[in-house]
Specification:
GO cellular component, one term: plasma membrane
Order of helices and strands: HHHHHHHHHHHEEEH
InterPro entries: Cobalamin_biosynth_CobD/CbiB
Protein name: Cobalamin biosynthesis protein CobD
Structural class: mainly alpha
Number of domains: 1
GO molecular function: ABC-type vitamin B12 transporter activity; threonine-phosphate decarboxylase activity
Radius of gyration: 20 Å
Largest sheet: 3 strands, mixed
Strand content: 5-15%
Shape: globular
Number of helices: 12
Helix content: over 70%
Function: Converts cobyric acid to cobinamide by the addition of aminopropanol on the F carboxylic group.
Strand order of the largest sheet: 2-1-3
Amino acid sequence: MSFDYYPIISTYSTALAVISAVLLDALLGEPKRWHPLVGFGWMSNKLEHVLNHNMRPWLARAAGLSAWLLLLLPFAALSYLARYTPLAWIADVTLLYLAIGAQSLTQHAQQVYTPLQEGNLPQARHAISMIVSRDTSQLNETEIATATVESVLENGNDAIFGAIFWFVLFGGAGAVLFRLANTLDAMWGYRTPRFLYFGWAAARLDDLLNLIPARLTALSYALCGHTKSALKCWMAQASTWYSPNAGPVMAAGAGALQVQLGGNAVYHGTAKKRPTLGMGALANTQHILSATTLVKRSIALWCLVITALSILMHMKGSLHLA
């Protein structure tokens, strides 16, 4: 049978799955109850408290790696086996929908934007405390806006584009593996006395999984914003940031928005002087909306590129089978 007569859902299954998952997220948002990531976070917390005790550094690292494998491999394996069921495509769409959080990211940003726009700093501080790990109790308007824009840009990669990238390569299992690994990094990947060694594997493996997606995200931000400024900031500033993957994403994003990010922040009781990223004005409330718009434009770009690649692969397959 010629490839041309296959159903369209088979020919363009990956592109259709990505678009379907993105639309589901836009329409439904995250599940209000029984979200799998919430249950996974509970399991991770329990396991960490069982395994993470005072021990030698190499033992703590081994325990952290063991915990990572115990938590991720069963879910990734089950997700992979789902592709061999009659509902494989639907399972893939569902898994990607659960792995991405574009609508949730926009909602969290809006929850900061609204009170900040109204001058209600206490409420804005509380809202931003829900999405960042820094101390928010004393943040002023500029610092709140800065923290929100940084969170939107970085989570664009962590909660959206990274999952889509690994989904394109390995289907639902790829998206699940990435999202769970990112969740463990968010829970354990801190340089605090408790997690310095136990969280080492979670942090390094998340860095590895983000190596390519982060740079594709940075390129997306550049193409969907002020391209010249984004590329200039990416090349000049990304290496100054303490995270090898967040650096390109946030530098390119800040340049694309032509806003200054970085600066001093307090993490776990310790003041941290962070390099300046981007250019132009200091962050304000309007930059929060600009950041969410940049992420939305980048999502549209990814859907277009994935669809175009599917069409090209189909055309190439048709030529070989002709």
